[in-house]
Design a protein that fits this description.
30% of the residues lie in helices and 30% in strands. By secondary structure, it is an alpha+beta fold. It has a three-stranded mixed β-sheet with strand order 2-1-6, with no helix packed on it. A three-stranded antiparallel β-sheet has the order 3-4-5.
């Protein structure tokens, strides 16, 4: 993985001298077609077959997530929806408008976490 150094000041203490931090070099984004094209190289399926399966997986995962279920995607990890809400003293004072910050949470599988620990880095300027 390619990383570069960027100088940033501390937003909580403007009087503190700026420090250098590592920032991952963004190598772009792979879309669903790119994923499918790579999968075709390792399978006997056609590009259309793989794209169809991936699109259907997205639809099915979305359905289960919106039902409040976690979705384990094999060795990749788990997706689930998380949320935060304002607190109230009595249950009858709560209403759903107090729910905020709904987000999709990804929790990588142990194998992926291990691979993240073993990344080698290349410094770029």
């Amino acid at each position: 993985m390619r990383v570069k150094l960027v100088q940033r000041s501390n937003p909580l203490d403007k009087n503190q001298a700026p420090k250098y931090y590592a920032l991952m070099e963004n190598e772009g984004v792979v879309d669903l077609y790119g994923l499918a094209d790579q999968i075709v190289k390792y399978s006997s399926l056609s590009l259309g077959d793989v794209l169809n399966v991936l699109e259907n997986m997205i639809d099915a995962a979305s359905l289960f997530l919106l039902m409040g279920r976690g979705v384990r995607i094999g060795r990749l990890g788990m997706l689930r929806i998380g949320l935060k809400s304002d607190g109230v003293d009595a249950a009858e004072d709560f209403n759903v408008k107090m729910i905020r910050n709904v987000k999709l949470i990804f929790r990588p599988n142990k194998q992926i976490k291990k691979q993240l620990e073993d990344i080698s880095y290349e410094m770029i300027k």
